[in-house]
């Protein structure tokens, strides 16, 4: 394939407080990682690199192979098996370090790279397709975004300093996509920690454009987010 998808799943999940690395917490019978990979495998045919906590790398591989086989049973690849496209590498102390570890495992022929948070477990396959299409069309970095719906305030401690106009703001999601050479060069140049990959590429001088995100691509961070994911999965199964 010409597309590579790095799925970062090496976070500790402290804010979720579930007592396990976040990607291995169950939504229903299946984990956050399992659900995330279902969306990934139903998207564009791609090399898939899962970045997992070192001590859970074996579990991550088992999970990824199971989802690959299941997806193949429903929609077989024209050539070969999906499980041959799956790799697992150990993560790092920061998200940026984990992404860098994933980039190191991409095959030589990969031209377009998507970086995706496993914690956005219910991201539909269409978002992956949309991001790849936009990278191909623009040659820029691509971030899926949603309009900001809340009213925003700039605060200092508990005091409101001013209202913030939300019209020019957007909420960033993943998968974020890039021409491979652009992302590799930006990672080599990165001299600070960035909160997402488009910020890192922008700091290196890269152009970034947006595509519509999806409400289901929210990041599971708190127990309330996990409840939301559970009801969405339950409703979909009902
Ligand atoms: O913590 P947060 O949910 O913002 O992390 C976003 C994504 O980055 C998650 O999918 C998490 O597993 C991943 N991550 C990682 N390595 C880290 C920290 C976060 O792979 N050291």
Automatic annotation (TrEMBL):
Sites marked Positions MEP for the nucleophilic attack: 166, 219
Cofactor: a divalent metal cation
A GO molecular-function annotation: 2-C-methyl-D-erythritol 4-phosphate cytidylyltransferase activity
UniProt keyword list: Isoprene biosynthesis, Lyase, Metal-binding, Multifunctional enzyme, Nucleotidyltransferase, Transferase
Pathway the protein acts in: Isoprenoid biosynthesis; isopentenyl diphosphate biosynthesis via DXP pathway; isopentenyl diphosphate from 1-deoxy-D-xylulose 5-phosphate: step 4/6; Isoprenoid biosynthesis; isopentenyl diphosphate biosynthesis via DXP pathway; isopentenyl diphosphate from 1-deoxy-D-xylulose 5-phosphate: step 2/6
Annotated EC: 2.7.7.60, 4.6.1.12
Region (2-C-methyl-D-erythritol 4-phosphate cytidylyltransferase): 1-238
Site, as annotated: Transition state stabilizer: 15, 22
GO biological process assignments: isopentenyl diphosphate biosynthetic process, methylerythritol 4-phosphate pathway; terpenoid biosynthetic process
Family that this chain belongs to: Belongs to the IspF family. In the C-terminal section; belongs to the IspF family.
Name of this protein: Bifunctional enzyme IspD/IspF
Source organism of the structure: Microbacterium limosum
Name of encoding gene: ispD
């Amino acid at each position: 394939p010409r597309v590579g998808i790095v799925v970062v799943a090496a976070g500790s999940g402290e804010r979720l407080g579930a007592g396990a690395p976040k990607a291995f917490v169950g939504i229903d019978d299946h984990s956050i990682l399992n659900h995330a990979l279902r969306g990934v495998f139903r998207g564009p045919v791609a090399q898939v690199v899962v970045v997992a906590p070192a001590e859970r790398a074996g579990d991550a591989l088992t999970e990824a192979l199971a989802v690959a086989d299941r997806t193949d049973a429903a929609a077989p690849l024209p050539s070969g098996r999906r499980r041959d496209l799956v790799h697992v590498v150990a993560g790092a102390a920061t998200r940026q370090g984990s992404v860098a570890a994933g980039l190191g495992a991409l095959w030589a022929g990969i031209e377009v790279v998507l970086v995706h948070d496993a914690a956005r477990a219910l991201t539909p396959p269409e978002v992956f397709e949309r991001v790849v299409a936009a990278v191909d069309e623009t040659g820029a970095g691509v971030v899926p975004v949603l309009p900001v719906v809340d009213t925003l305030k700039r605060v200092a401690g508990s005091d409101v300093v001013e209202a913030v106009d939300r019209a020019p703001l957007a909420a960033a999601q993943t998968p974020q996509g890039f021409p491979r050479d652009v992302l590799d060069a930006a990672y080599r140049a990165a001299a600070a920690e960035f909160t997402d990959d488009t910020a890192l590429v922008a700091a290196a001088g890269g152009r970034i454009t947006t595509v519509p995100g999806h409400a289901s691509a929210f990041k599971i961070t708190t127990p309330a987010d996990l409840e939301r994911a559970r009801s969405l999965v339950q409703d979909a199964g009902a």
